[in-house]
Amino acid sequence: MIKTTLLKATEAGAKELQRFFNGNFKIMNKQGINNPVTEADLAAEKAIFDVIKADFPDHFILSEEAGEIKMDSEYKWIIDPIDGTINFANGIPICCVSIGLEHDGKIVMGAVYNPLMNEFYFAEKGSGATLNDNKITVSKKDKVINSCLVTGFPYTYLDTENGPLQVFEKLIRKGVPVRRLGSAALDLCWLAAGRFDGFYEHKLSPWDSSAGFLIVEEAGGKVTGFKGEAYSVYQPHILATNGLIHDELLGIINGKSL
Ligand code: IPD
Ligand code: CA
Ligand code: CA
Predict the structure, then answer these.
(1) CA 167 to ligand 1 centroid distance, Å
(2) Which domains does the chain have, with CATH numbers?
(3) CB-hemisphere CA count at 13 Å for 107?
């Protein structure tokens, strides 16, 4: 039942992405420069809420635009109605709905759907990860120098030691390809599907990674914070890899040279 609700909610949100994509929609700006929210984000969020609230009215919800709908429940739905809003607003089809389901503090299911590329990623804890119902696994590259990486940059840039630009520069100067897709949820899913070998980002929110994190783990990858500690969606740093390049990339992020 709960899996059916997750799939239904993800599809309902994705329908709104399709409905508005490349059409006319209002764009509002949130805090910071270029941090937009569109009419489509709000419509997708409402469509997702309608499905979840109909099936589980007493579950806790944490969603990017609406914030927290607090309930005394062991279940929490962590929702990004559109991950990749800037892409969406510019007609770039790299964006998705992302929903992670937390039970007793652990993410147990995740769904990420990009209807514009017809790619539906799903994982349930202990049952593997799929893309359009086909099992996916991470890549087998075992050296950073031979890897294809992806990263993202926060809208409000934090100029810290070994910050996003320094790490990026170090990798690029050595000739390592580092892509920037603009959707953390899809970055994680494309890693899970073996397209990328590693993904890191300095400042994410729970809704960006709640589903993708589980999808990577269930595809055989490894996800930690920047100290190599167990990953929590409630802290900003994330390093996700195929497992084989994890320690090497962790060292580079923490100041080692390549
Ligand atoms: C953003 C995307 C982007 C990441 C940003 C996120 P949004 O989410 O995931 O890839 O670099 O940190 O805020 O705003 O498009 O939902
Ligand atoms: Ca996001
Ligand atoms: Ca969003």
Answers:
(1) 18
(2) 2-135 (3.30.540.10), 144-253 (3.40.190.80)
(3) 28
